[in-house]
């Protein structure tokens, strides 16, 4: 399970991170140490989620960093000031050196979270990960019932997840969960929350799908209707009131329906970064899609240099790079102009304002797509067909099936 859908929120920095001067052209910007590293150990995954934000071109096993490289990355990350590491993928359990990496990260004093589909986990593997020192495990949840869950995952996996949750709890490891929400499971928000409570999860991220990688290719299949989103948000609010204190619930906003963009990653290369399976360091998990940037590899450069000096990391730090309308907008300190990856995907230029923004001259690109999706759902309903936006029936198979990447 990749963390991509759940990490584009505004992380709060709770470490005392030292300031360094940024040698980029944006000299006035004060550079802090990164708080979190997302270590994408592999793109291989037994699941086929249509909303996966891994790139369409998945890295093959033979291109993955070896154990020694990852150990060095962890050493350099700790030296740089990183406090929190997320081991993710793909499915990180497919790496046989996972326990070794967890152990090293703990020795370095990092908080270690592991994000998994639960598929491939055994009782013995959970015990070994606990011994290695994993601090928390985050299980992906596709739906509240086995039939829909297995359909979304593309393989039978719901029962394996239930067992994984049981073993994680039995080993005393704090359990978290994440559910990517889209047209085919939004009607189950309340049931998904109850399921996670019954599994003993302490925290659940309800992440409305973000359209990168496979999710972008499948966005027509995944985009919910406004009515469906409103009903789901109301269900989330009801559950929050009902379950206050039992489980921490995080709602990650559906930005295709927002007026202003999210403060993506808390600002470009400002709080955290990702290392991909083949060793490229990215300011955000989806950034590899920006073909106009060069992303340096940890095989050739130190993490410190990449964070402080590299072209990709310095490209959009601060505000000097911003064109209008962001340059003179009062909200620029709040949302940093939105998401660079989304700006690139939808306009072809990563410097543009995120088209989610109603003030962006490119907003029509997104608004037209949302409107046409709504119109096609309405015409289906008028023709007597089920509207998947409302009933979660029909459109059962995503047009682009995510490969396993083996
Ligand atoms: S296919 Fe699903 S489980 Fe696998 S990496 Fe992608 S989102 Fe995560
Ligand atoms: S114009 Fe730019 S800074 Fe202003 S709200 Fe829109 S994206 Fe944010």
Automatic annotation (TrEMBL):
Enzyme Commission number(s): 1.21.98.4
Keyword tRNA-binding: no
Keywords: 4Fe-4S, Iron, Iron-sulfur, Metal-binding, Oxidoreductase, PQQ biosynthesis, S-adenosyl-L-methionine
Stored InterPro entries: 4Fe4S-binding_SPASM_dom (IPR023885), Aldolase_TIM (IPR013785), Elp3/MiaA/NifB-like_rSAM (IPR006638), PQQ_synth_PqqE_bac (IPR011843), PqqE-like (IPR017200), Radical_SAM_PqqE_MftC-like (IPR050377), rSAM (IPR007197), rSAM_sf (IPR058240)
Region (Disordered): 1-27, 377-406
Pathway assigned in UniProt: Cofactor biosynthesis; pyrroloquinoline quinone biosynthesis
Bound cofactor: record note: Binds 1 [4Fe-4S] cluster. The cluster is coordinated with 3 cysteines and an exchangeable S-adenosyl-L-methionine.
SUPFAM superfamilies: Radical SAM enzymes
Biased composition (Polar residues): 1-11
Catalytic reaction list: [PQQ precursor protein] + S-adenosyl-L-methionine = E-Y cross-linked-[PQQ precursor protein] + 5'-deoxyadenosine + L-methionine + H(+)
Compositionally biased intervals (Low complexity): 12-27
Residues given in the record as [4Fe-4S] cluster binding sites: 45, 49, 52
Domain Radical SAM core: 31-248
Enzyme class of the recorded protein, top EC level: oxidoreductase
CDD domains reported in the protein's UniProt record: Radical_SAM, SPASM_PqqE
PROSITE patterns: RADICAL_SAM
GO biological process, one term: pyrroloquinoline quinone biosynthetic process
Cofactor dependency: [4Fe-4S] cluster
Tagged with keyword 4Fe-4S: yes
MF-aspect GO terms: 4 iron, 4 sulfur cluster binding; cyclase activity; iron ion binding; oxidoreductase activity; S-adenosyl-L-methionine binding
Reported function: Catalyzes the cross-linking of a glutamate residue and a tyrosine residue in the PqqA protein as part of the biosynthesis of pyrroloquinoline quinone (PQQ).
Family that this chain belongs to: Belongs to the radical SAM superfamily. PqqE family.
Subunit structure: Interacts with PqqD. The interaction is necessary for activity of PqqE.
Name listed for the protein in its UniProt record: PqqA peptide cyclase
């Amino acid at each position: 399970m990749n963390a991509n859908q759940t990490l584009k929120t505004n992380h709060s920095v709770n470490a005392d991170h030292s300031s360094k001067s940024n040698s980029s052209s944006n000299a006035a910007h004060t550079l802090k140490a990164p708080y979190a590293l997302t270590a994408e150990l592999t793109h291989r995954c037994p699941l086929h989620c249509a909303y996966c934000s891994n790139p369409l071109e998945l890295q093959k096993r033979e291109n993955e960093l070896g154990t020694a490289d990852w150990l060095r990355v962890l050493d350099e990350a700790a030296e740089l000031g990183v406090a929190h590491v997320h081991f993710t993928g793909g499915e990180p359990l497919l790496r046989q050196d996972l326990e070794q990496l967890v152990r090293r990260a703990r020795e370095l004093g990092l908080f270690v979270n592991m994000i998994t589909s639960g598929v491939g986990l055994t009782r013995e593997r959970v015990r070994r990960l606990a011994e290695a020192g994993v601090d928390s495990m985050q299980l992906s949840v596709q739906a509240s019932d086995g039939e829909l869950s297995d359909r979304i995952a593309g393989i039978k996996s719901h029962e394996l997840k239930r067992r994984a949750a049981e073993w994680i709890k039995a080993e005393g490891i704090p359990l978290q969960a994440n559910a990517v929400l889209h047209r085919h499971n939004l009607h189950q928000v309340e049931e998904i929350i109850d399921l996670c409570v019954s599994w003993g999860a302490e925290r659940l991220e309800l992440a409305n799908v973000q359209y990168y990688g496979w999710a972008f290719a499948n966005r027509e299949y995944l985009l919910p209707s406004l009515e469906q989103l409103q009903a789901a948000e109301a269900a989330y609010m009801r559950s929050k009131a009902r379950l206050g204190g039992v489980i921490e619930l995080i709602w990650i906003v559906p930005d295709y329906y927002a007026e202003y963009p999210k403060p993506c990653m808390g600002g470009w290369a400002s709080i955290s970064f990702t290392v991909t399976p083949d060793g490229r360091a990215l300011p955000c998990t989806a950034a590899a899609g920006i073909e106009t940037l060069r992303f340096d590899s940890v095989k050739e450069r130190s993490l410190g240099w990449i964070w402080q000096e590299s072209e990709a990391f310095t490209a959009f730090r601060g505000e000097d790079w911003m064109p209008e309308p962001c340059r003179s907008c009062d909200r620029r300190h709040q949302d940093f102009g939105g998401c660079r990856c989304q700006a690139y995907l939808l306009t072809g230029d990563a410097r543009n304002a995120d088209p989610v923004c109603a003030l962006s001259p490119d907003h029509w690109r997104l608004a037209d797509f949302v409107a046409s999706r709504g119109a096609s759902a309405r015409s289906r309903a008028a023709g007597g067909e089920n509207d998947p936006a409302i009933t979660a029936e029909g459109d059962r198979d995503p047009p682009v099936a995510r490969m396993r990447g083996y």
